[in-house]
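User: I'll paste a sequence; please echo it back and then give the predicted structure.

Assistant: Echoing your sequence first, then the prediction.
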Amino acid sequence: MEFSAAGRLEVRITTADVGKRVSVRRLSEAGVSGEKFTDTVGVLTSWTDGVLLITRKSGESVHVAESTLVAGKVVPAAPARRRGPAASYEELARAAARSWRPVESERLGAWELRAAGGFTRRANSVLPLGDPGLPLDEALTAVRRWYGERGLPAYVQTATGAAGTQESLCAELERRGWVREVTAEVWTGPLAPVADLAEGTGVVLSREADETWLARYQRKGVSEVALRVLESGPSVWFATVPGAEGAVDADGAGDVAAIGRCVVDGRWASFAAVEVDPAQRRRGLATAVMAALARRALDEGASAAWLQVETDNAGARALYAGMGFAAHHAYHHYREPAAAGADR
């Protein structure tokens, strides 16, 4: 917090600091906690009618009454990661988009409108990397019309918590009634240590998501459109660990112990769909799958890795942290007002 020469707390931010990262201290609301003050750090996304709106790294919006402020100052951007590959938000966002391509897309200025028959929000949402070339309200009207023509709810994918992310856009969407449905995180880490974690014996790699792989994939009954998304990307690999010989699952497909997907794109390798048969967990199969995929990615020239993890998936977060991954930024999907939900 900022102190005056006399040692008192001071508010050293104004409405001119909207868009900057700030740290504020305010009086706690009566009965909310036993603390007298509450501290908030994030991007000051608006300051109107005596209320500050601060968007935290997690994407959470905090409303702070100006009358409760006791201290505040502009603070530097979050410190650079001390380990793992350096990367900007935009670089990672573009790599992520290339690894999970929609079936159909259209440009709206620097925004990309993406659709894939409703298979995952990632392939059926707007990626707003820049200016749409229209005032925001007009751009959102065009977005809603485009998705409506395809029988889909409109979603906008945003990010928070890193340099160049979209806290201001998040605040504007919320102000217009868009609903944040999903929050997850993008984690990054060095690739070589992942490759060294296990031998990967018994992991079968393929260029296609065949019936064996799909038997373990969490989304059953995958359509032709979904297969096109799964197999999209610069260099896609699917890993499978066969289960016990002769065993079958409830659908009559051959038993599969574990699977994974990796897309190699320049220096980046992305990991997804790492899934293990519940009866086969705690045997190191997820690690073996990722190690085998990492070695293939290294052979193709990649050196860094990224993946997405749900904020409430404690098991996955512990696994990936142990592999050297750490959070880079949070990402969110905002649904248009009064629209029906869709599968992520």
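The first strand starts at residue 21 and ends at 27. Residues 24 and 72 are 4 Å apart (CA to CA).
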